Amino acid sequence: MTPLHTLSTLFLAAPALLGQPLAGTSAPVAPAPSTGLGPGLGPGLSTVLGTELAAPELVAAHDDRSDLVILNDGKEIECRVILEAEDYILTTRGSKKKQYSREDIAEIHSVERSLSQLFERYDALPSRGPAELAELALFCEQNELPSEARNFWIQVLTQDPENEQAWNELGGVYTKRRGWRLKVRGRFYTVEQLRERVSDWKHAMEIPTAHFLLKTDIEPERALNIALNLERAYMTYYEVVGEALALQVFDEVPEVHVFKDPKDYPTPRFQGDEAWFSRGENTVFVNGASPEVANAAVFKLTHALVLNSFRRTIGGNGSIAPWTERALAEAFSYALRVEDGVASWEFGRPIMEYFRLQATDDKPLGMKRVITAGYGAFNNGTDAQRYNAECHTLMFFLLHAEEGRYRQGLAAYMRSSFKGQSAPTHLEKALGVKIKDLEPQWNAFVEATAAQ
């Protein structure tokens, strides 16, 4: 499967199991597959150990020695692998980037490859008992995933509260009088004391992952699952989008704040949003009290992934064209599935409600209005639903019309738009066709798809 074909699968998202309409839209959807971002892990010590116990070094970004590339001649290169293309890889060490041909490489060990192997192992488990989770924790320790290792040791204790190996790995201290305790900021706390402490946003849990920092005062049972699912979202994003757009991995640490109490949830820019992304703070804020928040959270998380991946790849602090970013976020949100606490993304077919809406619209917005629209057009106003529908159908059209002849140009446009080149003329140049000639093709495509 080619990178651009992989990108095109994003916009084949089926609407059958969608969680909720996007802010500013009213497309019909089914109930969310689960509450929050994943169900609980069960009672016990998971209610306390995800906490502010995170060691500071686990929160830091990966350094330029996190990965290892071994060449055919045996030379070992400590670096950070920031891009794996079909015939080469790109690495960074300090301020220097270096490219290696695949033909010269014997082995690659990277954070991203370790995550992929971790999820393969996790998903293949016949059960998730203490022994299996301990094996995953050890795998993470041996493969540059210290945050995930900590997560799994905590999960071991949810099922086996006296597991000495897990307690030792987490830095626990045992006394005959008080049993096992953990040290937090200079003080030792029992399980019950920690349970009470982390239920307040002032002492919110801080759970680092390979690429994010999760901060929350929700039930740690849910929080531990969210931490793993954040990395699943990261891996899915780069699998589907990264290679097609030659996006380099980022080592910044976006934060995700999930609030138990709506009173603590910061006021979103658009009223009614259950999640929102602050570009300046590089933080996704999520109202964890909402019963159908998973899709909204993934929608905004996609904005964070776009910003950080494009900023690392292209430089600066720009943004891709609003209509393309909206289409990406919408595709990831609608394709989300959560089963038994595990998030996955099912990209299957177009969102037919959107195609039918546009096909039956007496006065569609048209290509230029969609391309030049700002973020606000998709979030509020009487035309918000039409903007959302048409940005989806336009992206779908550019990926699939005439056997994908516009895909390469679309990828070039998305990259250049991050540097401010997002006007209709820039799209025309990237695609090699005038909008006045392209629009009739788009309309015909929409009508044909809606009739299926």
Can you put this structure into words, describing what you see?
The longest helix has 23 residues, at 220-242. The protein has 17 helices and 15 strands. Helix 8 packs across helix 9 (294-314), helix 9 (294-314) crosses helix 10 and helix 11 packs across helix 14. It has helices spanning 3-8, 56-59, 111-124, 130-142, 146-159, 164-169, 191-197, 220-242, 294-314, 322-335, 352-359, 367-372, 375-379, 384-400, 407-417, 424-431, 435-450; strands at residues 67-71, 76-84, 88-93, 96-101, 105-109, 173-175, 179-184, 187-189, 205-208, 213-216, 255-259, 275-278, 283-287, 336-339, 342-345. The protein has a five-stranded antiparallel β-sheet. A five-stranded mixed β-sheet has the order 9-10-11-13-12, covered by helices on one side. The chain has a three-stranded antiparallel β-sheet with strand order 6-7-8. Mean pLDDT is 85; it is low at 12-60. By secondary structure, it is of the alpha+beta class. The chain folds into three domains: 45-59 and 114-345, no CATH class; 67-109, Roll (SH3 type barrels), CATH 2.30.30; 350-450, no CATH class.
